Amino acid sequence: MIDDRTRPAPTAVQHLLDRAVAEQGYPGMSAALREGERLRFGSAGAADLHSGRTWRPEDQFRIGSITKTFTATVVLQLAAERRLSLDDTVDRWLPGLVRGNGHDGTEITIRHLLAQTSGIFGYTLDQDWLDRFWSPNLLEHRFEKVAPEELVRIAMAHPAEFRPGQGWGYSNTNFVLAALIIERVTGASYAQAIEHRIARPLKLANTYAPGYRTGFHGPHIRAYSRLSVQDPQAPTHDMTELSTSWSFGAGDIVSTAGELTAFLAALLGGRLLKPAQLAEMLTMCRVPDGSWLDGYEYGLGLSSFTLPGGTTVYGHGGATIGTWSYLYGSRDGGKVMVQAVNGDWGPLFPLFTEGLDTAFSSGGRLP
């Protein structure tokens, strides 16, 4: 979706984008701010280092764990339709899949999955998985297709983190399972559910789950990665084309800056979920101290935190190979901001928080 009323980003936001590229060495960075139908967009650096072209609001990119908010939205829609209950056990829909090492699908509910309170081990912490997909070895495995059931089996090989409902722990496995439940309940693919229930109603023509597709079906940025090598002089690799089947339902969706802000505005504004289900999504628990999300609260596939200027925002972040992004908005969806970089290194949380604080904490409307 391209908004005909797109205007340049406010000066303070543009300054932050310029500084991020100049001081932190990202190939490029973009930010989009939406108030109602009004979209402001800014970028710095390059969307493509080879051509040097700049980012555009309609450029597609991989959104990483912002996918979780899409997955949770579809599950909550199904709950509103009484096709499932958040208190259904995982075993009801995926019998026998969650078993072993303290994992028991007869005790874990769908609510536990969406709230990150299941205790299920996160397969992305498995050392063999990290060696294949989050290291320079990815160059050999970038087009590898991984079935979601295989991701669950990786998790089951490790001990559960805690008993269901007795703790909080961020686990990508939870959302792989949630996406599999969507498929079981609807009889459609996860990609079809995202298209028919979110993208099509909101007219998001460039938002989709790619499945095993390794490229894009429209204009897109190039994604650059150091493949987790913690050295400023490490080589940078163009990782634009790759399979993200290893993040099924948890981090694989493709979208654009303009469409992401439209999605979150619609979600928080009550246009995708009924009031009861939106209230469930927004029922937050504080993330335990010492977590990498220290200071955040987490609901059902949606997080919140309070900016230094005092404004509380709601949304999700997303980190994937070559692209990191951050999508947050006001409680009513009246103001939404997404920021993205096409590099996957550096201290991004402070940068993204500064961008949000710059846009939100004045309390006024965008100039």
From TrEMBL:
Source species: Streptomyces orinoci (Streptoverticillium orinoci)
Enzyme Commission code: 3.1.1.103
Keywords for this protein: Hydrolase
InterPro entries the UniProt entry points to: AmpC-like, Beta-lactam-related, Beta-lactam/transpept-like
Domain Beta-lactamase-related span(s) in chain numbering: 14-343
UniProt-recorded name of the protein: Serine hydrolase domain-containing protein
Domain of life, source organism: Bacteria
MF term (GO), any: hydrolase activity
